[in-house]
Amino acid sequence: MNWLLVPLFSGLFLSARSVGIAPRVLILNMFSDEANVWYNIPEFNVLAKNISVPGLSPLFPEVHCTKNGSICQLTTGEGEINAASTVAALLHSPAFDLRTTYFLIAGIAGVNPKVTTIGSVTFARYAVQVALQFEIDAREIPANFPTGYFPQGTTAPGQYPRSLYGTEVFEVNEKLRQLAFQLAKTAEPQLNDTTDSRAARAPYLTAPQFAAAGGSPSVVLCDTATSDTFWSGTLLAEAFENTTKLFTNQSAEYCTTQQEDNATLNALLRGALTKTIDFSRIIVMRSGSNFDRPPPGESAVANLLGPGPGFVPSVLNLHIAGVKIVQAIVSRWKDFEGGVKATNYIGDIFGSLGGKPDFGPGNIFSGKVANFSYEAQ
Ligand SMILES: *[C@@H]1O[C@H](CO)[C@@H](O)[C@H](O)[C@H]1NC(C)=O
Ligand SMILES: *[C@@H]1O[C@H](CO)[C@@H](O)[C@H](O)[C@H]1NC(C)=O
Ligand SMILES: *[C@@H]1O[C@H](CO)[C@@H](O)[C@H](O)[C@H]1NC(C)=O
Ligand SMILES: *[C@@H]1O[C@H](CO)[C@@H](O)[C@H](O)[C@H]1NC(C)=O
Ligand SMILES: *[C@@H]1O[C@H](CO)[C@@H](O)[C@H](O)[C@H]1NC(C)=O
Ligand SMILES: *[C@@H]1O[C@H](CO)[C@@H](O)[C@H](O)[C@H]1NC(C)=O
Ligand SMILES: *[C@@H]1O[C@H](CO)[C@@H](O)[C@H](O)[C@H]1NC(C)=O
């Protein structure tokens, strides 16, 4: 059977743009170890169809799909630039019709020991680009600055940014997040853990504020921070906790740090403006692979350069928890096909998709959708 014709059988509305594969779920990983946990698994085979798409990362030049195209997987490459470029290229590919696709961002992350622990699987409502700021080296900061980072257009840490690029904050569908959380939660008893991870958690228990770091891996609702810089340490962690709160007008609770999500979300937002994708169908899942700061008595550099004891459970748990979401969407498609209607604001800090963000300057397009959108031809 010609796979280009598969959408004909999947009950999708057909138009001139819908000749491509129309995945029900597209899993987005950032590098090989995150991707490998989706290959050679009992549930489905995403290596049955490989589709080359011009503009993907040369390291990961193909989108991988099941034979019937209902589940696909793509590795973006790491860092904000690779993530944005790969997703933008995918959105422009005529090989795909992504208008009803659910996007599952599935990656590992540094984790805030005040909120949860290594091995845990988290679902974010807010993604904050915390390093999109002014920075001066800590050795040169004024005596009254608690950190070398301060928002663009401001004169000191803690002031709301006066110069926004638009990618500072993204908010995704809260109702879909809750649904994904409940589905992943069914896998909680099966989450992987290792003796190395357990040993790495123990030192955090000497500090009461890190009690959450001592638990077993669990499924958690909390927000994510994006920075190209792979940072570590208590002071930067506290600075970015502050930034996350500041940029979202106190709404977000920072728990994971990673290098791509705001970039991926920005590319998807551009796709939503051209009606190539539906921004209400995005799930941001991040599992904890390492702590963002050391336990009491250890240095920031030792934490950063240590053995990474949470790595094995963090990659395994992306599949263990995430597959429940993938399977539910694919098998209960009649419940998902029409979308999960968002009741919260979704989109970027400018209000580009319409509606009124509860952070930033409000909707800068007079409360409407940004005028560079156009109807599908
Ligand atoms: C397509 O394949 C997936 C996984 O192999 C399977 O779960 C699903 O039932 C199949 N059919 C449709 C219409 O998605
Ligand atoms: C798809 O690519 C993977 C390697 O990335 C390979 O193992 C698999 O055999 C390929 N599938 C097909 C149908 O060629
Ligand atoms: C990045 O995206 C997250 C989640 O969507 C959002 O909470 C966060 O505010 C964004 N950060 C920036 C700086 O745009
Ligand atoms: C986690 O995975 C590792 C590596 O496959 C394995 O050795 C260990 O037994 C697993 N632990 C649990 C609790 O499943
Ligand atoms: C974070 O914010 C708190 C409260 O405003 C402040 O006391 C602290 O110095 C800030 N920390 C850093 C590292 O910026
Ligand atoms: C968010 O906080 C900033 C700084 O206090 C303020 O200027 C802005 O109006 C707030 N945004 C919303 C939507 O309340
Ligand atoms: C949107 O942009 C087009 C082309 O520049 C213009 O003709 C139209 O008036 C604009 N619409 C609104 C509502 O601003």
Can you tell me about this structure?
- With 377 residues, the chain is α/β, with parallel strands linked by helices.
- The protein has one domain (21-132, 167-348): Rossmann fold.
- 26% of the residues lie in helices and 17% in strands.
- It contains ten helices and 14 strands.
- It has helices spanning 6-9, 32-36, 79-91, 174-185, 195-201, 234-247, 261-273, 300-305, 311-331, 333-336, and strands at 25-29, 49-52, 62-65, 71-75, 102-111, 121-124, 126-129, 134-135, 149-150, 169-171, 219-221, 223-226, 254-258, 282-291.
- The strands form two sheets. Strands 1, 2, 3, 4, 5, 6, 7, 10, 11, 12, 13 and 14 form a twelve-stranded mixed beta sheet that branches. Strands 8-9 form a two-stranded antiparallel sheet.
- It is globular, with a radius of gyration of 20 Å.
- Residues 10, 44, 66, 68, 70-71, 330 line the site of one 2-acetamido-2-deoxy-beta-D-glucopyranose.
- One 2-acetamido-2-deoxy-beta-D-glucopyranose (NAG) binds at residues 124, 126-129, 132, 167-172, 223-224, 226, 247-248, 252, 261-262, 265.
- Belongs to the NUP family.
- Pfam families: NUP (PF06516).
